[in-house]
Amino acid sequence: MRTILSALLLSMLMTLSSCEGKSGYLDEGQQGTVAMLTDVEWLMVWADYGSLGEETYEAETDIYRFERSGKGWFANGSWLDRDKKDGIGYFQWTFTTENFSVICMAGYIEGYWLIEKLTPNELWVTSAPQDPVLYPSQDSRRYRFKARKIK
Questions:
Q1: In the predicted model, what is the mean pLDDT of residues 89-111?
Q2: What pLDDT is stored for residue 54 in this prediction?
Q3: % of the chain at pLDDT higher than 70
Q4: 3-class DSSP assignment, residue 11
Q5: pTM of the model
Q6: Could you tell me whether strands 71-78 and 85-95 are parallel, antiparallel, or unpaired per DSSP bridges?
Q7: What are the CA-CA distances from residue 137 to residues 47, 128, 134 (Å)?
Q8: How far apart are CA 144 and CA 56, in angstroms?
Q9: What DSSP string describes 12-69?
Q10: Of 4, 43, 46, 146, which is least surrounded by CB within 10 A?
């Protein structure tokens, strides 16, 4: 058991350390996924917090930005004022599956996002503390985001 856990931790560390340089070896579909995810800011419009209920965000919201370098940031912001970004926190991110359907984040934001829908304008995810591929039956939250073009 200890050997399996050690191997799993090593695999996770290798995954997180591979956040740099996601170009050159990606197929066309993977490049499209990276482009849709990274060329915008993602503003939360809806959240399902499980037993805590659902919430819709119309003015103040959470903003996520994924950069092609594997770095990203999170902030509290506004739909109306593009420059309002409070409480900025930084994280590293990477995909954990070959089909680029799971994002792992470490740093200010920790956890995994299983991508349910990704278009140039919408991102729907299920957020979980552990990899949803390895641990499918865990507490999770669902979020929906709208894209905002970067200035």
A1: 95
A2: 97
A3: 83
A4: helix
A5: 0.81
A6: antiparallel
A7: 19, 10, 9
A8: 9
A9: HHHHHHTTS---SS--HHHHHHHHHHHSEEEEEEEEE-GGG-EEE-SSEEEEEEE-TT
A10: 4
